[in-house]
Amino acid sequence: GGPGLRRGFLKEYEGARNEAGERHGRGKARLPNGDTYEGSYEFGKRHGQGTYRFKNGARYIGEYFRNKKHGQGTFIYPDGSRYEGEWANDQRHGHGVYYYVNNDTYTGEWFTHQRHGQGTYLYAETGSKYVGTWVNGQQEGAAELIHLNHRYQGKFLNKNPVGPGKYIFDVGCEQHGEYRLTDMERGEEEEEEELITVVPKWKATKITELALWTPALPKEPTSTDGPGQEGPGAESTGEPGEEAQALLEGFEGETDMRPGDEDADVLREESREYDQEEFRYDVDEGNINSEEEETRQLDLQD
């Protein structure tokens, strides 16, 4: 081989060209900065399906449109986190799943590289999940925070709940109330007054029962099999049940914009489905912003 092939390195470009001498068709290229690309070209530009490997270990496997990541693609970041989904104009845009280093996942809508629209964030450590609205990468708007034995429905701002909302407990009751911003009281001995943080404080207003069955006065003598028989058919479930149902439905109508829950495998093939089973969730989103910065640097190199 010629000098370009010493030590197994690629030449600047090996592959098909058109009459004008432009890279056109399948080819392999090594960029001046050490990155490599193997895939499809059109009129001298990366176009179609290809794999781009960054010198720092990151890689993109997916579709290109005139040199830009565009269409369906998977980006694996240097820290091992990855995004699988739609791209537009070199940015995460459309629908996609991000798998974070700590095993958290975000599944939902993206807009110019950020989580934006409807999406679900699963906290791997605690098994909790945030299902709802995102604005410019942050949890903001109407949403539901689902924990292992209760959930909170309300509005969020800067990742914190704000204003009226309700806790729904699996034991069968709801606690209505609102979050008000209060200054965190700090002990005087700490002498850190400049670090006062504003935290939302929950003020409960009322507790309502959720469709709890209470034995009614027996109207017919059906005591042969014990009270268990009356359960599902008991008339007393009507009133609170419907009221609670209406409350729940009212909220779901507002936030339930995600498609039906499907099998986990579908995520990979068709990242358009949500899988509630596999999703788990923790209130610290520590490493979320690190990937944003990482990407900015990568994109500069690309």
TrEMBL record:
<keyword id="KW-0469">Meiosis</keyword>
<keyword id="KW-0206">Cytoskeleton</keyword>
<dbReference type="GO" id="GO:0007017">
    <property type="term" value="P:microtubule-based process"/>
</dbReference>
<keyword id="KW-0969">Cilium</keyword>
<keyword id="KW-0963">Cytoplasm</keyword>
<dbReference type="InterPro" id="IPR003409">
    <property type="entry name" value="MORN"/>
</dbReference>
<feature type="region of interest" description="Disordered">
    <location>
        <begin position="213"/>
        <end position="302"/>
    </location>
</feature>
<protein>
    <recommendedName>
        <fullName>Radial spoke head 1 homolog</fullName>
    </recommendedName>
</protein>
<dbReference type="Pfam" id="PF02493">
    <property type="entry name" value="MORN"/>
</dbReference>
<dbReference type="GO" id="GO:0051321">
    <property type="term" value="P:meiotic cell cycle"/>
</dbReference>
<keyword id="KW-0677">Repeat</keyword>
<feature type="compositionally biased region" description="Basic and acidic residues">
    <location>
        <begin position="255"/>
        <end position="283"/>
    </location>
</feature>
<keyword id="KW-0282">Flagellum</keyword>
<comment type="function">
    <text>Functions as part of axonemal radial spoke complexes that play an important part in the motility of sperm and cilia.</text>
</comment>
<keyword id="KW-0966">Cell projection</keyword>
<comment type="subunit">
    <text>Component of the axonemal radial spoke 1 (RS1) and 2 (RS2) complexes, at least composed of spoke head proteins RSPH1, RSPH3, RSPH9 and the cilia-specific component RSPH4A or sperm-specific component RSPH6A, spoke stalk proteins RSPH14, DNAJB13, DYDC1, ROPN1L and NME5, and the RS1 complex-specific anchor protein IQUB. Interacts with RSPH3B. Interacts with RSPH4A. Interacts with RSPH6A.</text>
</comment>
<dbReference type="GO" id="GO:0031514">
    <property type="term" value="C:motile cilium"/>
</dbReference>
